[in-house]
Amino acid sequence: MLSRLIPAAIVLAVAASACAHHASDPQTLADDTTRAVYNADLDGTVAHFDDALKADVTRSSIGEVSDEMHALGAYHGLKPVSSDPDKGRYNFQATFDKGTLLIELRLDPDQKIGAYHVVPQSTK
Fold it and tell me: The whole model's pTM is what?
C-alpha cells in the first residue's frame, strides 16, 4: 500500500510546484487575467487578485472593460514592455485585431495582483 502512495505523493508535489511557478510568473498572471476580463469572467479575473483589489471589482466594471476589448477585435496575447521586479511592477502590451492596450500590473510580496490597469493605446 505504501509503495502506491509514494508515486501519488510525487505526482502531487510536482503538480503543486507547477502551480506555484505559474502563479509567480507576471506575464502568465497578466495574460490569464486579461483573457478572463476579455471573456467577462469575474471569477477568473479576480482569481489572483489580493483581497483589497477583489473588493474594488464588480461584474459591471469587468463587463465595461470587456466591451472595450471586444471593440478592438480578437485578443492575440501579451508582450512585455517594461518591468521593475524590485517594486513588483510590470507593463505588457495586449494585442488585438484593431489595436493595443497597455496592461499595468503590480504584484504584492505574496505574488498576488495588487493592481491591474488597462490603458487605451493607439489603434491600427
Answer: 0.79
Q: Is beta strand 89-96 parallel, antiparallel or unpaired with respect to 99-107?
A: antiparallel
pLDDT in tens, the chain (124 residues): 444 444 433 333 333 334 444 456 999 999 999 999 999 999 999 999 999 999 999 999 999 999 999 999 999 999 999 999 999 999 999 999 999 999 999 999 999 999 999 999 855 5
Residue 27: C-alpha distances to residues 10, 22, 23, 43, 59 (Å): 28, 9, 10, 19, 24
Q: How many other β-carbons are positioned within 10 Å of the β-carbon of residue 36? A: 19
If one looks up domain 25-123 in CATH, what number appears?
3.10.450.590
Rounded to 5 degrees, what angle do the CA atoms 54, 85, 20 make?
60
